[in-house]
Amino acid sequence: MGELTGRTVLVTGAGRGIGRAEALHLASLGANVVVNDPGVTIDGRGPDDSVAAAVVEEIHELGGRAVADTGSVADWDAAGRMVERAVEAFGDLHAVVNNAAIEVNKGLERLTEAEFDDVVAVKLKGTFAVSHWAAAHWRRRSDAGSKADRAIVNTASGSGLYNPLPSQSNYAAANAGVAAMTTVHALELGRLGVRVNCVVPSMVRTRLTREVPGMDQAPPTDGPDPRDPSVVAPLVSYLVSQDCPLTGQFLSVRGGTVIACRGWTIGDQVHKDGEGWTVPELARQLESLPLDDPFERLAGALGTALGSQGREALQAMISAELDKS
Questions:
Q1: In a domain, 2, yes or no
Q2: CA of 56: how far to CAs of 1, 36, 204, 310, 316, in Å?
Q3: What is the mean pLDDT of residues 271-284?
Q4: 272 is a domain residue
Q5: 118 phi/psi in degrees, rounded to 5
Q6: What residues does 258 pair with on adjacent strands?
Q7: Catalytic residue among 90, 171, 238, 250
Q8: Is 15 exposed, middle or buried (0-12, 13-18, 19+ CB in 10 A)?
Q9: Are 255 and 308 in the same domain?
Q10: Structural domain for 301, as ranges
Q11: Domain match, 29 and 126 both
């Protein structure tokens, strides 16, 4: 028997990239998998029902158990039907992997209201909607006396946490919101026996990352590819497993490295007793604080992925992206 035999996992955005790799890995360990994907393009157009069906067929060919769901996570009722689909097909739902995302990259002055709303609807509202319906199901099971281990694994991005990319107002904001919800939901759902964690894939080769510096490098021919989406899957499988004790954690995956992320933390400070600050006083004091430069923070987060391109190439990439028509 596999390590996840008997557990049912709903994976959103599971038709391609990281979600597909997660679905295949979960199934290889014995999990029943609901493969959710409407089959849309990067910017949310489509749909194509064959995308989810193809992953289900892959799982069946490997001897696993899976069903397809083609609803949009941004649709409140469709999100509820995903949970119902899992229960109808396999008797229960033990874990949700919120992976679905779309992307529209434009500079602030060109990004439209609809383009902002669409990206936030899939990534942020979609994560909330699927988690809501799963939690409602688990609350009913808990009230009925079922104390089975449950888990939610959210998916955020360095864009929104430690390396927000220019041209990604919508995507960065949505991912930062997912990270905030992870903490809230971990605190809320512990009383129901539900663990909530967040994975943060870094420098993984997908449709959404092909414009990031360094992602155009060819995969190695003589060993594993550290940028293949499959590098994320084992961590997700662990986080949904019954024996995992973790909750409220943010874990970034870059190749074979897993990094515990701390998120926003309290830094250096200035203080004044008595009367409030004057503007000149604040100017003098705040200039003395060791404040981060956002470009240097971005370059440092991308690290070795910049390779020979260096900071000048990164700046050129940013300028070219922002100036696209």
A1: no
A2: 20, 10, 23, 42, 42
A3: 86
A4: no
A5: -65, -45
A6: 253
A7: 171
A8: buried
A9: no
A10: 279-322
A11: yes
Listed residues 208, 228, 260: the one ending a domain? 260
Q: Which residue has the tokens 């929104």?
A: 160
Are residue 299 and residue 168 in the same domain, yes or no?
A: no
Q: Which residues contact 117 (CB under 8 A, 6 or more apart)?
A: none
Instruction: Tell the residue number behind the tokens 């028509």, with chain if given.
Output: 325
Predicted pLDDT of residue 295:
74
Residue that wins the pLDDT comparison between 96 and 230: 96
**Shared-domain flag, residues 254 and 288:** no
Q: Residue 71, SS3? A: coil
CA distance linking residue 265 with residue 224, whole number of Å = 35
Q: Is residue 267 part of a domain?
A: no
CB 94 within 8 A of CB 8: yes
Percentage of the chain beyond pLDDT 70 is 86
The residue-averaged pLDDT of 99-122 equals: 95
Q: Are residues 254 and 308 in the same domain?
A: no
Q: How far is CA 318 from the centre of its chain?
A: 23
- Establish whether 171 is a catalytic residue: yes
Residue written as tokens 């992870």? 182
End-to-end CA, the chain: 54
DSSP 198-255: EEEE-S--STTTTTSTTTTSPPPSSS--TTSGGGTHHHHHHHHSTT----S-EEEEET
Cis peptide before 213 (omega within 30 of 0): no
